[in-house]
User: Fold this.
Amino acid sequence: MAHSSVTQIGETLRIRVEAAGLSSGIYGVHVHSVGRCQAPSFESAGPHWNPSNRLHGRDNPGGQHRGDLPNLMVGTDGNGSFEFTIQGSRLSGRNSPLLDQDGASIVIHARPDDYRTDPSGNSGARIACGELG
Ligand SMILES: [Cu+2]
Assistant:
């Protein structure tokens, strides 16, 4: 289960990700470009949010996607959460807003993101999804 939210403060988006009921471990998480979470594959959430057409990963010379997020740490209680800010972005209006016509979502993957491998950091299957907005 994933619960996520986004708020805009000035030209910054603050993303909050909350997950429960996962095995303890490290999970890749990203903002995906479509606000549609259809189990079990969550392919409906589309690719990473990437309005500036970069490659994936903060450690990739051609990176990064606007929707790249840090890995989620889940403890032995099955819970994990973090907040992360994305600079220079808006929820609505012009210039590639996050919540465009088809919305956006947060997707948690089965494995950690290596922050380098395009298009998804080698993070494997999509295991949880939360629609934003
Ligand atoms: Cu992803």
